[in-house]
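Researcher: For the record, we're logging two predictions in this thread. I'll number them. Prediction 1 follows.
Model: Prediction 1, sequence and structure:
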Amino acid sequence: MNIQAMMKQAQKLQSDMLKVKEEIDNMEFLGTNGLVTVKLNGKKEVVEVKIKGEDDFSKDDLEMLQDMVMLAINEAMKQIDKVTEEKMGRFGSIPGLF
């Protein structure tokens, strides 16, 4: 295989990777835990947090609510990592890329 063909193949691979990454970035992931729902995009940015019955919490319940929010966010992050691994795995492991 000549160097030009290899370069062309590498450029196509890079283009394919960027398309898949963009697809993941535009997806939405929901994390839920009890009364809390958190929505993140594929860039792992929280775009929405919903708390059901938010007026019903006492100060003592605040710590529990914070833990629930954290667990919901972590659940959504794990979903993003799983989909990213599934969709990007075919490109091999390139350290620091994603």
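Researcher: Logged. Prediction 2.
Model: Prediction 2, sequence and structure:
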Amino acid sequence: MLVSMGSFISVFAQKQAEIKFETIEKNLGTFPESKPVQTCEFAFTNVGNAPLVINQAVASCGCTVPSYTKEPIAPGKTGTIKVTYNGKGKFPGHFKKTITVRTNGKTEMTRLYILGVMEEGK
């Protein structure tokens, strides 16, 4: 009985989601202060063998807003996290922002980065 229970637990524990991003950094390039809102997307795949759930995606400041699907991503399927940066009212120049993504996957936390340069308006 004990051996079969251990086998059951071992098989159950092997079913796990796993998120894999195409890239963890996006460069928004150089853009004018007159167009401060920029967006990008981070594509990912569930390379695990259980449904993947994104529990949260939190940015390092209020000028950066991530959005993502709340539905589970089946094994082998893909999804995206869309990130909007709004530099309105920010000082022109180089920036780098962090988005922390938490999932139910084997890797519970991943950090994504966006960076760029907002040029001062003339």
